[in-house]
Amino acid sequence: MPPLPDAEPVPGFEHPLPSVPPESGARSTTSERPHRCGYVAIIGRPNVGKSTLLNRLVGEKLSITSAKAQTTRHRIVGVVTRPGAQFLLLDTPGFQTRNRGALNRVLNRTASQAALEADVVVLVVDAHGFNDADEQVLRLVPADKPLIVALNKVDALTDRNRLLPVLARLGERAQITAMVPISARNGRQVDELLEECAKYLPEGEPLFEPDAYTDRSERFLAAEAIREKMFRLLGDELPYQSTVIIEQFEETPTLRRIFAAIVVERDAQKPIVLGAGGERIKRIASEARQDLERLFGGTIYLEVWVKVRGGWSDNEQRLKTYGYD
Protein backbone atom coordinates (compact mmCIF):
# COMPACT_ATOMS: atom_id res chain seq x y z
CA MET A 1 0.00 0.00 0.00
CA PRO A 2 1.42 3.46 -0.82
CA PRO A 3 2.51 5.50 2.21
CA LEU A 4 -0.11 7.68 3.81
CA PRO A 5 0.49 11.43 3.61
CA ASP A 6 2.11 13.12 6.57
CA ALA A 7 -0.28 14.48 9.14
CA GLU A 8 -0.64 18.19 9.74
CA PRO A 9 -1.85 20.00 12.85
CA VAL A 10 -5.49 21.00 12.95
CA PRO A 11 -5.53 24.80 12.71
CA GLY A 12 -6.61 26.19 16.04
CA PHE A 13 -6.42 22.78 17.72
CA GLU A 14 -2.70 22.02 17.84
CA HIS A 15 -2.82 20.34 21.26
CA PRO A 16 -5.16 18.01 23.13
CA LEU A 17 -7.51 19.64 25.59
CA PRO A 18 -6.48 19.40 29.28
CA SER A 19 -6.58 15.89 30.66
CA VAL A 20 -6.68 14.29 34.07
CA PRO A 21 -3.09 13.71 35.33
CA PRO A 22 -1.97 10.11 34.76
CA GLU A 23 -0.81 7.78 37.49
CA SER A 24 2.56 8.41 39.08
CA GLY A 25 5.45 7.58 36.80
CA ALA A 26 3.61 8.09 33.50
CA ARG A 27 5.28 11.49 32.94
CA SER A 28 8.86 10.32 33.35
CA THR A 29 11.42 10.99 30.62
CA THR A 30 11.70 8.69 27.62
CA SER A 31 14.84 7.00 28.96
CA GLU A 32 13.14 6.25 32.30
CA ARG A 33 9.67 5.43 31.08
CA PRO A 34 8.74 1.73 31.24
CA HIS A 35 7.47 0.02 28.11
CA ARG A 36 3.69 -0.08 27.85
CA CYS A 37 1.39 -2.43 26.00
CA GLY A 38 -2.37 -2.73 26.09
CA TYR A 39 -5.74 -2.68 24.39
CA VAL A 40 -7.46 0.48 23.19
CA ALA A 41 -11.14 0.09 22.25
CA ILE A 42 -12.35 2.45 19.52
CA ILE A 43 -16.10 2.85 19.98
CA GLY A 44 -18.82 5.17 18.74
CA ARG A 45 -22.11 5.34 16.90
CA PRO A 46 -22.17 4.37 13.21
CA ASN A 47 -20.40 6.55 10.63
CA VAL A 48 -18.26 8.69 12.94
CA GLY A 49 -14.97 7.45 11.45
CA LYS A 50 -13.86 4.63 13.74
CA SER A 51 -12.54 2.38 10.97
CA THR A 52 -10.95 5.31 9.14
CA LEU A 53 -9.12 6.17 12.36
CA LEU A 54 -7.91 2.59 12.82
CA ASN A 55 -6.62 2.44 9.24
CA ARG A 56 -4.85 5.77 9.65
CA LEU A 57 -3.13 4.68 12.86
CA VAL A 58 -2.12 1.26 11.53
CA GLY A 59 -1.01 2.59 8.15
CA GLU A 60 -2.82 -0.18 6.25
CA LYS A 61 -6.36 -0.59 4.95
CA LEU A 62 -7.22 -3.07 7.65
CA SER A 63 -10.81 -2.19 8.52
CA ILE A 64 -13.31 -1.70 5.71
CA THR A 65 -15.20 1.58 5.34
CA SER A 66 -18.35 2.83 3.63
CA ALA A 67 -21.21 5.26 4.19
CA LYS A 68 -23.46 2.40 5.36
CA ALA A 69 -24.11 1.94 9.07
CA GLN A 70 -22.33 -0.99 10.75
CA THR A 71 -19.94 -1.66 7.88
CA THR A 72 -17.64 -3.04 10.59
CA ARG A 73 -19.15 -6.26 11.90
CA HIS A 74 -16.23 -7.87 13.72
CA ARG A 75 -13.86 -6.85 16.44
CA ILE A 76 -10.60 -6.25 14.59
CA VAL A 77 -7.25 -5.78 16.34
CA GLY A 78 -4.89 -3.32 14.69
CA VAL A 79 -1.33 -3.32 16.01
CA VAL A 80 0.65 -0.08 16.25
CA THR A 81 4.20 -0.27 17.59
CA ARG A 82 5.95 2.91 18.66
CA PRO A 83 9.09 3.52 20.75
CA GLY A 84 8.12 2.69 24.31
CA ALA A 85 4.61 1.40 23.60
CA GLN A 86 2.58 -1.09 21.61
CA PHE A 87 -1.09 -0.26 21.02
CA LEU A 88 -3.58 -3.05 20.32
CA LEU A 89 -6.45 -1.13 18.74
CA LEU A 90 -9.91 -2.71 18.80
CA ASP A 91 -12.15 -1.51 15.98
CA THR A 92 -15.80 -2.23 16.83
CA PRO A 93 -19.18 -2.18 15.08
CA GLY A 94 -21.14 1.04 15.43
CA PHE A 95 -23.52 0.69 18.38
CA GLN A 96 -27.14 1.24 17.38
CA THR A 97 -30.62 -0.08 18.16
CA ARG A 98 -32.47 0.76 14.94
CA ASN A 99 -32.04 -2.72 13.45
CA ARG A 100 -33.35 -5.64 15.49
CA GLY A 101 -32.58 -9.33 15.35
CA ALA A 102 -29.72 -11.62 16.27
CA LEU A 103 -27.15 -10.01 13.97
CA ASN A 104 -27.57 -6.56 15.52
CA ARG A 105 -27.54 -8.05 19.04
CA VAL A 106 -24.23 -9.74 18.28
CA LEU A 107 -22.74 -6.54 16.84
CA ASN A 108 -23.82 -4.45 19.83
CA ARG A 109 -22.50 -7.11 22.19
CA THR A 110 -19.13 -6.99 20.41
CA ALA A 111 -18.90 -3.22 20.90
CA SER A 112 -19.97 -3.44 24.56
CA GLN A 113 -17.52 -6.22 25.35
CA ALA A 114 -14.60 -4.32 23.83
CA ALA A 115 -15.33 -1.31 26.05
CA LEU A 116 -15.34 -3.56 29.11
CA GLU A 117 -12.16 -5.49 28.28
CA ALA A 118 -9.90 -2.70 26.98
CA ASP A 119 -7.36 -0.84 29.08
CA VAL A 120 -8.32 2.49 27.48
CA VAL A 121 -11.45 3.51 25.56
CA VAL A 122 -11.48 6.03 22.71
CA LEU A 123 -14.96 7.37 22.02
CA VAL A 124 -15.07 8.78 18.48
CA VAL A 125 -17.52 11.69 18.18
CA ASP A 126 -18.36 13.71 15.09
CA ALA A 127 -17.24 17.27 15.84
CA HIS A 128 -20.41 18.57 14.18
CA GLY A 129 -22.55 17.42 17.09
CA PHE A 130 -22.98 15.18 20.13
CA ASN A 131 -26.40 13.52 20.14
CA ASP A 132 -28.46 10.93 22.00
CA ALA A 133 -26.87 8.08 20.02
CA ASP A 134 -23.44 9.22 21.24
CA GLU A 135 -24.83 9.40 24.77
CA GLN A 136 -26.00 5.82 24.48
CA VAL A 137 -22.53 4.65 23.48
CA LEU A 138 -20.96 6.67 26.28
CA ARG A 139 -22.99 4.67 28.80
CA LEU A 140 -21.19 1.49 27.68
CA VAL A 141 -17.94 2.68 29.26
CA PRO A 142 -17.33 1.71 32.91
CA ALA A 143 -16.93 4.74 35.17
CA ASP A 144 -13.40 3.74 36.23
CA LYS A 145 -12.11 3.19 32.67
CA PRO A 146 -9.77 5.81 31.12
CA LEU A 147 -11.94 7.46 28.45
CA ILE A 148 -10.50 9.69 25.73
CA VAL A 149 -12.86 11.46 23.33
CA ALA A 150 -11.60 11.82 19.76
CA LEU A 151 -13.45 14.77 18.21
CA ASN A 152 -13.28 13.67 14.60
CA LYS A 153 -13.83 15.63 11.36
CA VAL A 154 -12.73 18.99 12.78
CA ASP A 155 -11.14 19.69 9.40
CA ALA A 156 -14.65 19.79 7.91
CA LEU A 157 -15.89 22.47 10.33
CA THR A 158 -16.37 25.77 8.51
CA ASP A 159 -17.23 27.52 11.76
CA ARG A 160 -15.08 26.58 14.75
CA ASN A 161 -17.72 27.99 17.08
CA ARG A 162 -19.89 24.97 16.26
CA LEU A 163 -17.50 22.91 18.35
CA LEU A 164 -18.24 24.90 21.52
CA PRO A 165 -21.61 23.29 22.39
CA VAL A 166 -20.11 19.86 21.73
CA LEU A 167 -17.25 20.61 24.12
CA ALA A 168 -19.66 22.00 26.69
CA ARG A 169 -21.88 18.92 26.61
CA LEU A 170 -18.90 16.57 26.81
CA GLY A 171 -17.35 18.66 29.58
CA GLU A 172 -20.26 17.76 31.83
CA ARG A 173 -19.14 14.12 31.87
CA ALA A 174 -16.80 13.65 34.82
CA GLN A 175 -15.55 10.29 33.52
CA ILE A 176 -13.87 11.79 30.43
CA THR A 177 -10.09 11.72 30.84
CA ALA A 178 -9.15 13.84 27.81
CA MET A 179 -10.53 15.26 24.56
CA VAL A 180 -8.42 15.40 21.40
CA PRO A 181 -9.66 17.10 18.21
CA ILE A 182 -8.55 15.03 15.19
CA SER A 183 -9.10 14.33 11.53
CA ALA A 184 -8.95 10.59 10.87
CA ARG A 185 -9.27 11.27 7.14
CA ASN A 186 -6.02 13.24 6.80
CA GLY A 187 -4.23 12.13 9.96
CA ARG A 188 -4.16 15.43 11.82
CA GLN A 189 -3.37 15.01 15.52
CA VAL A 190 -3.80 11.23 15.53
CA ASP A 191 -0.30 10.95 16.99
CA GLU A 192 -1.40 13.22 19.83
CA LEU A 193 -4.33 10.88 20.40
CA LEU A 194 -1.95 7.93 20.71
CA GLU A 195 0.20 9.88 23.15
CA GLU A 196 -2.83 10.41 25.37
CA CYS A 197 -3.70 6.71 25.20
CA ALA A 198 -0.13 5.67 26.05
CA LYS A 199 -0.33 7.40 29.43
CA TYR A 200 -2.94 4.92 30.61
CA LEU A 201 -1.70 1.66 29.12
CA PRO A 202 -0.33 -0.89 31.59
CA GLU A 203 3.36 -1.60 31.74
CA GLY A 204 4.31 -4.67 29.73
CA GLU A 205 6.35 -6.12 26.90
CA PRO A 206 5.06 -6.12 23.30
CA LEU A 207 2.68 -8.95 22.39
CA PHE A 208 3.36 -8.72 18.63
CA GLU A 209 6.43 -8.37 16.43
CA PRO A 210 7.26 -4.75 15.47
CA ASP A 211 6.14 -5.23 11.84
CA ALA A 212 2.79 -6.86 12.69
CA TYR A 213 -0.32 -4.82 11.95
CA THR A 214 -3.18 -7.19 12.89
CA ASP A 215 -4.07 -10.44 14.57
CA ARG A 216 -6.43 -11.38 11.74
CA SER A 217 -5.63 -13.91 9.02
CA GLU A 218 -5.39 -13.24 5.28
CA ARG A 219 -8.53 -15.36 4.91
CA PHE A 220 -10.46 -12.93 7.13
CA LEU A 221 -9.04 -9.89 5.34
CA ALA A 222 -10.08 -11.35 1.98
CA ALA A 223 -13.68 -11.73 3.14
CA GLU A 224 -13.70 -8.16 4.45
CA ALA A 225 -12.34 -6.76 1.18
CA ILE A 226 -15.17 -8.41 -0.76
CA ARG A 227 -17.74 -7.22 1.76
CA GLU A 228 -16.47 -3.65 1.47
CA LYS A 229 -17.00 -3.70 -2.30
CA MET A 230 -20.53 -4.96 -1.74
CA PHE A 231 -21.24 -2.03 0.57
CA ARG A 232 -19.71 0.50 -1.78
CA LEU A 233 -21.05 -0.77 -5.11
CA LEU A 234 -24.56 -1.85 -4.09
CA GLY A 235 -25.34 1.25 -2.02
CA ASP A 236 -28.92 1.41 -0.74
CA GLU A 237 -29.77 -1.80 -2.60
CA LEU A 238 -27.43 -3.81 -0.37
CA PRO A 239 -29.38 -6.30 1.74
CA TYR A 240 -28.58 -5.73 5.42
CA GLN A 241 -28.70 -9.49 5.89
CA SER A 242 -25.71 -10.28 3.69
CA THR A 243 -22.20 -11.47 4.47
CA VAL A 244 -19.16 -13.10 2.88
CA ILE A 245 -17.58 -16.45 3.67
CA ILE A 246 -14.30 -17.77 2.27
CA GLU A 247 -14.87 -21.35 1.21
CA GLN A 248 -11.36 -22.06 -0.02
CA PHE A 249 -8.02 -20.24 0.36
CA GLU A 250 -4.95 -21.71 -1.28
CA GLU A 251 -1.50 -20.14 -1.20
CA THR A 252 1.51 -20.97 -3.34
CA PRO A 253 4.82 -19.11 -3.63
CA THR A 254 3.47 -17.13 -6.62
CA LEU A 255 -0.32 -17.09 -6.25
CA ARG A 256 -3.20 -16.97 -3.79
CA ARG A 257 -6.38 -18.68 -5.02
CA ILE A 258 -9.49 -17.52 -3.17
CA PHE A 259 -13.03 -18.87 -3.57
CA ALA A 260 -15.71 -16.86 -1.78
CA ALA A 261 -19.48 -16.83 -1.40
CA ILE A 262 -21.70 -13.83 -0.78
CA VAL A 263 -24.54 -15.05 1.44
CA VAL A 264 -28.00 -13.49 1.29
CA GLU A 265 -31.26 -14.54 2.92
CA ARG A 266 -33.80 -14.51 0.09
CA ASP A 267 -33.86 -15.59 -3.54
CA ALA A 268 -35.04 -12.11 -4.51
CA GLN A 269 -31.79 -10.63 -3.17
CA LYS A 270 -29.57 -12.76 -5.40
CA PRO A 271 -30.16 -10.74 -8.61
CA ILE A 272 -29.36 -7.53 -6.72
CA VAL A 273 -25.85 -8.80 -6.04
CA LEU A 274 -25.37 -10.43 -9.44
CA GLY A 275 -26.55 -7.48 -11.54
CA ALA A 276 -27.52 -7.65 -15.20
CA GLY A 277 -25.48 -10.38 -16.86
CA GLY A 278 -23.43 -10.76 -13.68
CA GLU A 279 -21.95 -7.27 -14.11
CA ARG A 280 -22.13 -6.31 -10.44
CA ILE A 281 -20.57 -9.41 -8.97
CA LYS A 282 -17.79 -9.25 -11.57
CA ARG A 283 -17.02 -5.69 -10.53
CA ILE A 284 -17.14 -6.60 -6.83
CA ALA A 285 -14.64 -9.41 -7.45
CA SER A 286 -12.39 -7.31 -9.68
CA GLU A 287 -12.10 -4.37 -7.28
CA ALA A 288 -11.66 -6.66 -4.26
CA ARG A 289 -8.90 -8.55 -6.06
CA GLN A 290 -7.04 -5.32 -6.81
CA ASP A 291 -7.22 -4.25 -3.16
CA LEU A 292 -6.03 -7.64 -1.97
CA GLU A 293 -3.08 -7.66 -4.36
CA ARG A 294 -1.99 -4.32 -2.93
CA LEU A 295 -2.49 -5.50 0.66
CA PHE A 296 -0.84 -8.92 0.28
CA GLY A 297 1.79 -7.84 -2.21
CA GLY A 298 1.17 -10.69 -4.64
CA THR A 299 -1.02 -12.09 -7.42
CA ILE A 300 -4.60 -13.07 -6.52
CA TYR A 301 -7.02 -15.38 -8.31
CA LEU A 302 -10.50 -14.67 -6.96
CA GLU A 303 -13.84 -16.31 -7.67
CA VAL A 304 -17.03 -15.00 -6.05
CA TRP A 305 -20.58 -16.33 -6.27
CA VAL A 306 -23.88 -15.84 -4.43
CA LYS A 307 -25.64 -18.29 -2.11
CA VAL A 308 -29.02 -18.09 -0.40
CA ARG A 309 -29.22 -19.15 3.25
CA GLY A 310 -32.62 -18.26 4.65
CA GLY A 311 -32.74 -16.85 8.18
CA TRP A 312 -28.98 -16.90 8.79
CA SER A 313 -28.85 -13.37 10.28
CA ASP A 314 -31.42 -14.16 12.98
CA ASN A 315 -29.86 -17.44 14.05
CA GLU A 316 -27.07 -17.05 16.61
CA GLN A 317 -25.72 -20.54 15.97
CA ARG A 318 -25.45 -19.85 12.23
CA LEU A 319 -23.87 -16.46 13.00
CA LYS A 320 -21.12 -18.23 14.95
CA THR A 321 -20.36 -20.52 12.03
CA TYR A 322 -19.96 -17.40 9.86
CA GLY A 323 -17.47 -15.88 12.31
CA TYR A 324 -19.76 -13.60 14.31
CA ASP A 325 -18.79 -14.14 17.95
What does this structure look like?
The protein has helices spanning 50-58, 102-117, 132-138, 163-171, 190-198, 218-234, 270-274, 279-296, 316-321; strands at residues 36-43, 76-82, 85-91, 120-126, 147-152, 176-181, 243-251, 256-264, 300-308. The protein has 325 residues and is of the alpha/beta class. The strands form two sheets. A six-stranded mixed β-sheet has the order 2-3-1-4-5-6, with helices on both faces. A three-stranded mixed β-sheet has the order 7-8-9. The protein is globular and about 55 Å long. The relative contact order is 0.15.
Number of helices: 9
Strand percentage, roughly?
15-25%
The percent range for helix content is 25-40%
Major sheet strand order: 2-3-1-4-5-6
Shape label: globular
Mean pLDDT, all residues: 82
List the helices and strands in order. Answer: EHEEHEHEHEHHEEHHEH
Low-confidence stretches: 1-30
Q: Provide the structure class.
A: alpha/beta
Gyration radius from CA atoms, angstroms:
20 Å
Cα distance, first to last residue?
Answer: 30 Å
Number of β-strand runs: 9
Q: How would you sum up the major sheet?
A: 6 strands, mixed
